[in-house]
Amino acid sequence: MTAYAALAEPARRQILDLLRGGERSVNDLVARMKLSQPGVSKHLRVLRDAGLVEVRPEGRMRWYALRAQPLAEVDEWLEPYRAYWTEQLDALERHLEANPE
Prior knowledge:
The chain is an alpha+beta fold. Helix content is 64%, strand content 14%. The protein contains five helices and three strands; from the N terminus they run H-H-E-H-H-E-E-H. It has helices at 3-7, 10-19, 26-32, 37-49, 69-98, and strands at 24-25, 53-58, 61-66. The protein has a three-stranded antiparallel sheet. Strand 2 (53-58) and strand 3 (61-66) form a beta hairpin. It is elongated and about 65 Å long.
């Protein structure tokens, strides 16, 4: 599973958003999402396989944390699109300034 494929699912993006604030247990993620425990666990497994999260067992609990490094590849891929949209918005701004009405 690649980071791109893992990010395609909105629930997995929501899990990553929650993990930006720090480690969370499966139970905490279940409480914050509208998914069952097996559903959250399934998404965590996909994220783990893609290298986007890491798990730290502590007794009977499992703590999940974000691994942002694989997102660097996605960021690099997105860079030309950010440049494209910056150019488009700059052109719109110039057009609006030249045509105030």
